[in-house]
Design goal:
This protein has 76 residues and is mostly helical. The chain contains six helices and no strands.
Length: 76
């Protein structure tokens, strides 16, 4: 099972976004995004903001239940 941070990084990279770009689009601090991706933070109250900025649902982001092929077909 993948972690929130692993899913976040995978989706962000598939969308060809940097942490800084995701931070600007979501309103979530880049440091929080970095902490999530590196496993230094286990959860966040910003899942909805991050999911919306990435064009996925909160559940897809949290649980990693998404169609990987569709990630590259949707513009960030």
């Amino acid at each position: 099972m993948t972690t929130l941070g692993e899913n976040l990084k995978k989706i962000r990279k598939a969308k060809k976004m940097t942490q800084k770009e995701l931070a600007q689009k979501s309103g979530v601090k880049q440091s929080v995004i970095s902490d999530l991706e590196t496993g230094n933070a286990k959860s966040t109250g910003s899942i909805l903001e991050l999911a919306n900025a990435l064009g996925v649902t909160a559940e897809e982001l949290r649980k990693g239940v998404f169609d990987e092929a569709s990630l590259t077909n949707v513009a960030p």
